Amino acid sequence: MPRRSSSASSCSWAASDPSPSSQRSPPLPRASTTPILQKGPTLVNPLDKLLPSARPIDLPPVAIIGLGRFGSAMAEELHSHGVDVLGIDVEEKLLHDNDPHLTDSFIADATDPEALKQLGVKDFQQVVIGIGSGLEASILTASNLVELGVKDIWAKADSDAHARILTRVGVHHVVRPERDTGRRVAHLLSGRFQDYTVFDQGYAMITLRAPKELVNHSLNRHSLWAKHRVQLVAVHSGNQWAPPFADHQLSPDDDVILAGAPADLEKFGRR
After folding, report:
1. Dmax over Cα atoms in the chain, in whole Å?
2. Rounded CA separation 97/177 (Å)
3. Kindly report the CA angle at 245 between 228 and 224, in degrees rounded to 5?
4. Which of 37, 54, 144, 169 has minimal Cβ neighbours within 10 Å of its Cβ?
């Protein structure tokens, strides 16, 4: 039986409501007004905690099961962009620690299908499984969500075998944050790149200081591709990013984003 966390607010998808979707609170406002929503015994402006540079993400409420490092980071990011987040975990402390980023929270065992039904999880369009180290709990939770008919399930995996099982169970998106971060940092160790993003084994993007051969010259994207097999995607100049224009001349302090095969990017970065 799920129970509300002691720090949780009153929300329309509460377990006592047999039809969570019928009374769910409306999406967070996008206008510059300052509407107020009821949360527990106090009134709060849901936009007060938005970061100064944050902009609302157009997403319906998201349920996150498992609020460890991965789940809590996702809850914080979604909340900072105005998305309602339901947190579910077996540990009340984790729910309490993440309360500033949660619209509502419940102490519940997601491996129990009845608990998920009572929470109305099937009414969420997107559910994230943040359980990683507990292989059995992760797989059982995923199986329960698939049987409930959740349309978009995301799950964290800690190994290739874990990822394969989640995919076979029916999870739509499986992420490997530790593996992906390790691969990314491996390319940053040289100090040549400011950022490195891999899209798949054959394509990546890097951010780096403008190479000397591009400085004080009009940009020629076709020549750059023909010579080095890398594509200039964007230029950071004067504190803002912009598309590369042919008549733009890079300064030594500019940064650029390049895309291409990882081997070609590494080779170009050594120039």
Report:
1. 67
2. 22
3. 10
4. 54
In tens, the pLDDT along 180-232 reads 889 889 889 988 899 998 887 789 999 999 988 888 887 777 788 999 999 99
51 CB contacts (<8 Å, ≥6 apart)? 80
Contact, 165 vs 139, CB < 8 A? yes
* Contacts of 7 by beta carbon, 8 Å cutoff, 6+ apart: 95, 96, 99, 105
User: Measured between alpha carbons, how far is residue 97 from residues 8, 51, 131, 144, 204 in Å?
Assistant: 11, 19, 17, 26, 36
pTM of the predicted protein model: 0.71
How far is it, in rounded angstroms, from Cα 235 to Cα 252? 12
Residue 170 amino acid letter: G
Torsion angle (degrees, nearest 10) of CA 119, 49, 93, 113: 20
Share above pLDDT 70 across residues of the chain, in percent, rounded to a whole number:
80
Supply angle C-alpha 265, 270, 271, rounded to 5. Answer: 105
pLDDT at 7 over 80: no
The Cα 214–Cα 211 span in angstroms is 6
Neighbour count for residue 251 (Cβ, 10 Å): 12
- H-helix or E-strand spanning residue 134: none
Pairwise CA distance, residues 128 & 47, whole Å = 23
